[in-house]
Amino acid sequence: MADPTPEARTALAGGPPPAAPAPPRHAPLTRRVITWEILCVLALSLGAAAVSATISFIGTATAPGGLAEQTASLVESRADAERPWLDLTWQLFSVIFAMAPVVLVLYLLHRSSESAKTVGFDVRRPGGDLVNGAGLAAVIGAGGLLVYLVSWQLGLNTTVSPSGLNEHWWQLPVLLLQAVKNGVLEEVIVVGYLMLRLGQLGWSPVRAALTSALLRATYHLYQGVGMFVGNLVMGLVFCWFYHRYGRVMPLVVAHSLIDIVVFAGAVYLIGRVGWLPG
What we know:
By secondary structure, the chain is mainly α. It has one domain (27-268). The chain has 10 helices and 2 strands, in the order αααβαααβαααα. The protein has helices spanning 6-12, 31-43, 46-61, 84-98, 100-111, 126-153, 171-200, 205-219, 225-245, 249-268, and strands at 71-75, 159-163. Strands 1-2 form a two-stranded parallel sheet. The longest helix is centred in the C-terminal third of the chain and has 30 residues, at 171-200. The N and C termini lie far apart (87 Å). The mean pLDDT is 89.
């Protein structure tokens, strides 16, 4: 007969059951771990978009006619007009899987004993977030429109076509989803996550904000020089707000509202008002 296990012997003796083994501890956030984490997150998301936008800008700027003769579409149709169901499927696919880097970032925060609340990506203050977000959207949106119109007149920008979708009943709902997706993806990663991790590396708030804003401007470079400058300023303002208040949710609201106005304007205004290019 086999000898009883230590647990069985303890139970027979009437003693307390053995303690459960402690869960494995996560690796500490060393400078090396943080650096590689940042590089991996950006390579899977907006860092790759910045490289793509730079290549696109070089191609557009060196094309015959330069930037002024080119058009940049923010949301492109992925199928012909005869198969709207396929285009809708592509659009929903792009929105859903664009959220994967955000999920990754939230998981990485959880692993380091942090959470979405650490960067203020939560709904604890809905009223204040909506008010602050709407105020930021009004200021940044008006300034961005002015920069776009002036730079387009100077030939420093492409003609931005916010929506290349065909006219279907789902066009506007999909554009609203794309707008919210942009707000969540960009602000959580480029402001909340990046500012937090760069601060943990010992970077000053100014240096971290400049890096974040430069990244934002670069992945918008495919739209032209004017929008590069406009997004650089927007990035600096958003990073200042985040550093001041520690919440990324108002930035998500502001960015989403700006893109909603831009996308809705593409549907209802372009071609109907003379001062708006397109």
